[in-house]
Amino acid sequence: MEIKKINTKIEGKKGWIRIVEAFAAILLILTVVLLILSRQRSDNLRADEITKLERYVLDYVSEDDTLRAYALSGNALGIENGVKELIPTWLNYQIRTCYVNKTYEDICAFDGIRPSEQVYANEVLIVANLTHYQNATKVKLFLWEK
Fold first, then answer.
1. Residue 41 is inside which H or E element, if any?
2. Order of strands, edge to edge, in the sheet holding 120-126?
3. In this predicted model, what pLDDT tens digit does every residue of 53-112 receive, in sequence order?
4. DSSP assignment, residue 131?
5. Residue 106: exposed, middle, or buried by beta-carbon count in 10 A (0-12, 13-18, 19+)?
6. What are the boundaries of each domain within the chain?
7. What is the dihedral angle through the alpha carbons of 50, 74, 79, 54, rounded to the nearest 10 degrees?
């Protein structure tokens, strides 16, 4: 009789061990899923943050008289010096200016980055006055993480 009691106790313990193993497996799977979801969410929040920053910087350029003058004269370096304090240190940036009424060769394109990096781009149109668009200049801002 004692042999049957020992076997019954061991089989009962095996059942509890399997329950604990199943619970641990479920916890592991849930942890991995939650980590993946939180990483995707933080990437989306970062993209939204960068997009809002771009809009803020370009609005600042379009409202500041000195930066508008730099834009109309095609001085991208002057604009960069004027906005460098607005852009956080964890971002790289490039500002391009191009005249709207010029030929197709004058494209506000970004160069010098590997395709694996994600670049955020936005632009604003700066004109001298609202009736004549002769000196219309496009200011394009490119941002990417360091």
1. helix 2-63
2. 91-99, 137-145, 120-126
3. 999 999 999 999 899 999 988 888 999 999 999 999 988 888 988 887 655 556 677 776
4. S
5. middle
6. 2-145
7. -10
